[in-house]
Write a structure and sequence with these properties.
Elements (H helix, E strand, L loop, with lengths): L8 E2 L9 H17 L8 H12 L7 E6 L5 E5 L9 H19 L5 E7 L2 H8 L2 H24 L4 E4 L1 E9 L5 E10 L1 E6 L2 E6 L5 H21 L17 H5 L1 H12 L13 E3 L11 E4 L2 E4 L2 E4 L3 E2 L4 H11 L9 E4 L3 E5 L10 E4 L1 H11 L8 E5 L8 H4 L9 E2 L11 E2 H9 L1 E2 L10 E7 L2 H10 L24 H9 L5
Parallel strand pairs: 1-21, 19-20
Antiparallel strand pairs: 2-3, 2-22, 4-7, 4-13, 4-14, 5-8, 6-7, 6-18, 8-9, 10-17, 11-12, 12-13, 15-16, 16-17
Helix pairs in contact: 1-2, 1-10, 3-9, 3-12, 4-8, 5-6, 8-10
Length: 502
């Protein structure tokens, strides 16, 4: 018996302007921008574009789709999304479900899978956060070691050209809105190999603690050796030279300061500069250190840690989709945010820390600072394919479910497009558990009448249906630092001489 379909509710328009996150950004973004531009440097343009797009996401004044029920002719509207990948809860949720649906229905073959989570030492988090090239190198070393484990195990069984498949999701954040670049790797729990002219899959023996300990030791060894070759580390594993950062961080030292403070859990600007984030409620180690067991299939060594306990069985497709949703999720859940007092935002942690901390508080400026650090720089790849899933792999077209499928959601149905895509209503149903295609009044079929983008047309339609006529306004800067304009002494004297007293 198949699993029952998830129940969807009728659609009601999302109102992001009523959320705490939106109100804080709208009321304090211009003040934050003015504070950053006091020194004449400011932040790169992509940061402000991310915030500006978020403030337009789902707001009808910036465009919408017009829908009408075919039975009762009742109309409704769906606002446009910003489609950004930084922190927008709505778009990150859609992107998460889009990736999970595409991978499970179009790409990933029926096979068992295992998740590897690899975290990095704190000094290396600073390095990879400011260098896309170094992040790519770190990811490649980790993937090579994990794939080598499966290849060596398969080669000992006499298999020809064994190749596992990996998909890496690079997560940049922690649960406390801190910048924490780390890797979530979805790997086939076995290998594909050649049997004559066809490819076949072979399960490998279950991963043991001893094998995972060896994987972590090889990752650490290769990382340290690579950084010694680049003269970042000395023979004792101590940092002697910092790697080059991307030009973006060299041109905008304020962004570099924000990134560094976010990784350290501190504040970069404002009256609390350098202090730790208000809480409520080391290096690379030494060469002879041995892996420390932190739990079942979970080890740490020299600041690195690896966890590989989570896996799915061959036919567990729903469980695989939930696992991918976890790996591709966004950094911010609006239900965990709360505005307290006149100048603070409270963030509830998903899991209390060992010291009892269950929430963190930020000033409004500090909150925007933390969101800034989470925005990925332009042309930063957050998903990487390896092994038999790599684009150039000879196995890819043979093993994926639908080789010609493209990721994305069309407004029309799958039958009207040559590519295998998802209907746009399926995306909203997966993300928000609402059915856009069903009328809330009579249950009839809803179809798209058109897209409205002209500002005058959007305003006229919103007035017609009784919506607010103007988009939510942004608050101006609370203060700006102005330069004093000193008068020329000679001119002031001359003016004084011309004053006529009564």
């Amino acid at each position: 018996m198949g699993e029952p379909a998830e129940k969807c509710h009728t659609y009601s328009r999302r109102r992001p302007e009523n959320t705490n996150c939106y109100q804080v950004v709208a009321q304090h973004l211009e003040t934050f921008r003015a504070e950053q531009e006091q020194d004449g440097v400011g932040l790169p343009s992509y940061v402000y574009k991310e915030f500006d797009a978020y403030l337009k996401c789902g707001i009808l004044a910036h465009g919408f789709l017009r829908l009408r029920c075919e039975a009762c002719h009742v109309e409704s509207v769906v606002g446009f999304s910003c489609k950004k990948r930084g922190f927008c809860p709505s778009c990150c949720g859609k992107r998460m479900n889009e990736a999970a649906a595409h991978l499970t229905e179009n790409i990933l073959p029926v096979a068992p899978y295992r998740q590897f989570v690899v975290t990095l030492p704190i000094p290396m988090r600073h390095w990879v956060a400011k260098s896309k090239k170094l992040m790519s190198t770190v990811q490649r070393i980790v993937i090579d070691v994990i794939q080598s484990h499966y290849k060596n195990q398969a080669s000992s069984q006499g298999l020809e050209n064994p190749t596992p498949g990996t998909i890496t999701f690079i997560q940049r954040w922690g649960s406390a809105l801190n910048l924490n670049p780390h890797l979530h790797i979805l790997c086939t729990d076995g290998v594909y190999y050649r049997h004559g002219e066809e490819s076949r899959f072979r399960n490998m023996t279950d991963l043991t603690d001893r094998a995972l300990e060896q994987i972590l030791a090889r990752i650490t060894e290769r990382m340290v050796r690579h950084f010694r070759r680049l003269r970042y580390l000395n023979l004792e594993g101590e940092v002697i030279q910092l790697p080059e950062t991307d030009d973006l961080f060299q041109d905008h030292p304020g962004l570099s300061q924000i990134v560094g403070a976010s990784i350290a859990g501190r504040v970069a600007f404002g009256p609390n500069t350098g202090q730790k984030v208000t809480a409520i409620g080391k290096g690379f180690g030494y060469e002879e250190e041995i892996p420390l067991a932190k739990g079942k299939l979970c080890y740490s060594l020299n600041g690195f840690s690896i966890h590989a306990r989570t896996k799915t069985n061959t036919l567990e497709r729903k469980g695989l989709e939930r696992l991918i949703q976890y790996m591709a999720r966004g950094p911010l859940g609006i239900q965990r945010l709360e505005v307290i007092g006149q100048n603070s935002v409270l963030l509830r942690l998903k899991t209390p820390w060992r010291d009892g901390t269950h929430s963190l508080t930020f000033t409004f400026s500090e909150f925007l600072e933390k969101l800034t650090a989470l925005i990925p720089p332009p042309r930063s790849a957050l998903v990487r394919w390896g092994g038999c899933f790599a684009p150039a792999s000879p196995y890819r077209k043979e093993i994926v479910l639908r080789p010609h499928a493209k990721k994305g959601f069309d407004r029309e149905t799958e039958e009207t497009t040559p590519q295998v895509r998802f209907n746009r209503s399926k995306l909203l149903a997966r993300t928000f558990k609402v059915d856009v295609d069903t009328c809330a009044d009579c249950g009839g079929k809803v179809r798209i009448m058109g897209a409205i983008t002209d500002p005058m047309e959007t305003r006229r339609y919103r007035q017609h249906v009784g919506e607010v006529s103007m988009p939510p306004s942004r608050a101006p800067p609370r203060y700006t630092q102005e330069e004093l304009d000193f008068l020329d002494p000679s001119s002031s004297t001359q003016e004084a001489d011309t004053i006529h007293l009564p």
